[in-house]
Amino acid sequence: MYNFNQHKKELNEIGFSITDFFFSESELAEINNLIAVYNFDFSERQLLNRFPKLQETIFENKLFKELLNTICDKDYFLSKAIYFNKPSKSNWFVSYHQDLSVSVKNKIAQEGYCSWTNKKGQLGVIPPLSILENIVTVRIHLDKTDETNGVLKVISKSHKRGIIRVDENFDASKEGEEVTCNVEKGGIMLMKPLLLHSSQKSFSENDRRVIHLEFCSQEIPMDWLEKKII
Predict the structure, then answer these.
(1) pLDDT score for 1
(2) Which DSSP string do the residues of 66-117 spell out, in sequence order?
(3) Which H or E run includes 55?
(4) Which residues pair with 213 in a beta bridge?
(5) Pairwise CA distance, residues 43 & 82, whole Å
(6) How far is CA 82 from the centre of its chain?
(7) Of 20, 35, 115, 221, most Cβ neighbours within 10 A?
(8) Rounded to whole angstroms, what are the CA distances from 70 to 9, 73, 107, 148, 229?
């Protein structure tokens, strides 16, 4: 029996929550087969815009839909979808950071929006804090993730402190309790984008494949690039 309200409580109080298996072996096989057919690289952006069949497979899962309905109210929509993979024995490390940039359709000068980027024609901007606080991230793990293959480490409750300056003076040990977020294959990690998190090196023969979905309920002047009503 899943306690969806407990996941919601943990997400709000400590900034993240981890579920047991939500996706069955057959559902994971279907997703992985689609990934193989599309020949994904280490990362794929605008995932559900480009590969709508994945949306059908993911959102047909009853547990997943019930979790979303508990975590997010009826006004929430999908605002971003990315596929990440840290392949076997990948030796890169991602230092502590917050997920601050959102993907938008148009570049419009607006108070509170800053640090514009353009990556391969895709516009990104850091929105006001109220938008970032509204976003919920859902990470679907297609592989078991632990200390051997690029597990996330997070600073518990750091999402409550707004945008945190990460520079040469940043010391994670002074920011709060560090937690290693092991997730089972087919499990889900919920998190707030303002939660400080880092990604470890992989020393394993196993990949670390994740489908990263973001949901928001607030509109922005420059329009969401990937907005989908689910």
Answers:
(1) 65
(2) HHHHHHS-TT-EEEEEEEEEE-TT----EEEE----EEES-----TT-EEEE
(3) helix 52-59
(4) 81, 138
(5) 7
(6) 8
(7) 35
(8) 10, 7, 34, 32, 16
DSSP 157: T
DSSP 23: S
109-146 b/e with 16+ CB inside 10 Å = b?
eeeebeeeeeeeeebbbbbeeebbebbbbbbbbbbbbb
Can you read off the two tokens belonging to residue 202?
């992989």
Query: Rounded CA gap, 37 and 107, in Å?
Result: 34
Query: What is the per-residue pLDDT across 12-63, written as a single tens digit (0 to 9) for each?
Result: 999 999 999 999 999 999 999 999 898 888 889 999 999 999 999 999 999 9
DSSP 174-222: GTS-EEEE-B-TT-EEEE-TTS-EEE--B-SSS-EEEEEEEEE----TT
pLDDT at 90 over 90: no
Structure tokens at 19: 């579920």
Amino acid at 111: E
Domains of the chain: 4-216 (2.60.120.620)
Distance CA 212, CA 19 (A): 15
Which tokens belong to 130?
């109220």
Structure tokens given for 88 = 């076997």
Instruction: Give the closest residue to 127 by CA, choosing from 196, 15, 222, 12.
Output: 222
Which pLDDT score, from 0 to 100, does residue 30 have? 95
**Tens-digit pLDDT profile for residues 158-167:** 999 999 999 9
